[in-house]
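Person: I have long wanted to understand how a fold can be written as tokens. Underneath my words sits a plain record pairing an amino acid chain with its backbone structure tokens. Those tokens are not coordinates but codes from a learned vocabulary of shapes. I should like you to check that the lines agree and flag anything odd. The protein I mean follows directly.
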Amino acid sequence: MYSADGFELAMHRVGRKTTADSRAAPVLIMHLEFLNGDSWFQFTDAADRLLPMLLVDAGFDVWIGHERATYWSHGHLDLETTDTRYWDWTWDDHAHYDVPVYLDFINNVTASSVHYIGLSESATAGAATATMLQNSLLIRSLTLIGPTIYIGDTNSIVMAAWAFIFGDIIDEGNYENGYQSGSFNFSTCSRFT
């Protein structure tokens, strides 16, 4: 899959339990900025406490999206990752170009509107996407976890530490520097690009 501005976008379908109702409601889960969709699987060893697995166990059809310029979604039709134009985008581009592609794809596969769960920047992008009429028809519900609204001009010690520790990742992109977040084995899932 590609966004209208040329970014490769990938998703993994985690799966669903086999039930008498084969039309399980689809859920798209989007991750925190600077990470990958695998981040939903890395913070505990207890699979029964992982959000995607809880949703699968509850009977949902779970899809994990990977934002542009991350490990699973790092390609572009025209730009190399060494080109500064590759990195010239904001959450607004994610909302305008990327989220609609995920929603359309899932809707085409499942013929159903999608429950959207977003964390931080992805929560903000999901909310912005839902304000566009053509996209709002594809969204069944929004769950916005810690939406990022504004972080500029902050005196936060936490944000200063974040920038100091992860500056090279933020400045040059986690994929190019060999950083790969998460440890989930996505080879067991269906990949869509």
